[in-house]
Amino acid sequence: MSLIKVVNVSKTYQGGEGAVNALRNINLEVSEGQFLALLGPSGSGKSTLLSVLGALNPPTEGEVSIDEISIYGLDDERRADFRHEYVGFVFQQYQLIPYLTALENVMLPLAITKYSEKEQKNMAQNVLEKVGLGKKSNRLPNQLSGGEQNRVAIARAIVNEPAILFADEPTGSLDSKTAKEILELFQSLNKDGQTIIMVTHNLENLAYVSRSITIRDGSIDTKPGLRIGGVS
Amino acid sequence: MRLSHISYENVRRRKTRSLLLILSIMIGVASSVFLFTTTRSMEKDVADKLDQFGSNILILPETGETLSFGGVTVGTSQGKELDMAMIPVMKTIQNKETLATISPKLLADADIQGKSALIVGVDFTQELRLKKWWKINGLEKGEVPAANEILLGSDVARILNLSPQQQVQIKGQDFRVRGIIQPTGSIENDQAIFMDLTTLQRAENKPTAISLIEAAAFCYTCPIEEVTRQLREKLPDAKVTALQLTLQSRDDTVQRFSLFAIVISVILLITSGFVVAMSMVSSVKERTRDIGVLRAIGFRKQHIIQMLFLEVSFVSLIGGLIGFALGMGLAMKFGPLIAQMTVQVPWQPMLALYSVGAALVVSLLASIYPAWSATKLDPVEALRYF
User: Fold this and answer.
1) Tens digits of per-residue pLDDT, A165-191?
2) Where are the domains of chain B?
3) Strands B149-153 and B173-181
4) Nearest residue to A99 via CA among B283, B368, B316, B364
5) Cβ neighbourhood burial of A115 (10 Å; 0-12, 13-18, 19+)
6) Domains plus CATH for chain A?
7) A22 at the B interface (CB within 8 A)?
8) Cβ pair A77:B302 closer than 8 A
9) Chain B residues lying within 8 Å of A95, measured CB to CB
């Protein structure tokens, strides 16, 4: 059974030069435990699709269901609760809160739960150790390298064990060695059963994923013969 | 970790912005406390001076009618009189410290140069303290007439054609005119002859008798009605009356000061509130991405509002407390000097509660719009996600 079901989703933005069709009639199903890469050139609509799938960005048309819940049928606050329970995000620029330590950043999603302070600390510390940053938990983001910040962002995204992990260009600004480490970390999480949807424009990353689709001009590219096109 | 921890860390680790916000609240509270406490003390100073400036309590006997002084009848053989022994009794009331001046008077009539005149026996020291507005020709400030000297009301001096240093015979004794009181607009003062109380008591052969007592009470801290009630209890045979006209005028003046103090303090607090609002708006803008992240990971709008309000509360508490201490300290040190008043500004610990409370309320009100606009942020826009 599909964990994510996308039916006829379109997204149109009203820009200065008229309407822009960021997504056109997208139909997609993602099963539990998949590691899906969304490929495509800049401006193709892959990040928009990620935000629509992540319950952040309502589509203009169509329906998105996760675990059989029509997420855009929920009101704003319930959708926030849904994101808290089902979704973890790793943002392009990591988006760590600069005045909180690595441990506190990881504890953020737990701050609105009923876990005690001690339980929150233990959970966050365990996840930081899982991503290899157990000894740097008290550092502020500006005291960490890009790769380390990325790991903190991943730890924050998985600390409350979400059903789906969304990552937007997680290796975009990393050197190849660090990028490889991050992708291996994703692969390891996926092997443990984590569903991951990752936006990337780097074809080398496909070696780590279980499935990829290409987005071009807001649509899923199904043309045969393309190196990275279609559904794998 | 709780939301309060995130807010606290934001205040603690973003030092410059937090300090600026604390500073703006502190300046607002300090200025308000300084102005409020100083003007309140000025109010007290003015009230005390007004209380000294003329009597506000009159103590009368039950008596018949012949000559009058201030609506009081001159004692006759049929009328009752007060006794000098009442004066020490008056000084035993609970609020005795409020009785600043007690001026006993004996009223008598006399025939001078074939004309009937009102003689008022007074304790000149007390009387001149009570009638600070008197301008007396022939008597320098600080001088007090002797036992064989008299002061004349302007009308009496004109009718009897007397001027300072002239001699006049009253009830068989010679008196020197020490001074002429310039017209006061009060018939009682302008048509009376003021003589030493003891001298008149001897001349009248009533060594301890008095016709009335005028008193001035400082009543900033106690209502004058309370003082008069206490006096009535101690002097059951006398009629103790508060002079409502004097009180009304005093209260009007004092209330204007009070209003002035409140208006200035409120204006300063509102100005401070605007600074907080502007600062919070800029803080929300500065943290657009952070708020976007929090919304994206599942924080509700109410969590964002709660965090911003907690942040403002921390800052307000710190700014309010420091502002109170600073304003109070400045008022105690420099208030009397600046306002040229004689009273000291007292330490008012309860004002700390009101200052911090006001800082909190104003800051929270000022944060409503920034908090509301923070909840309106689209997480995708906030993250510049696509």
Assistant:
1) 999 988 877 788 888 888 898 898 899
2) 3-47+253-384, 56-242
3) parallel
4) B283
5) middle
6) 32-58+88-220 (3.40.50.300)
7) yes
8) yes
9) 289-290, 292-293, 383
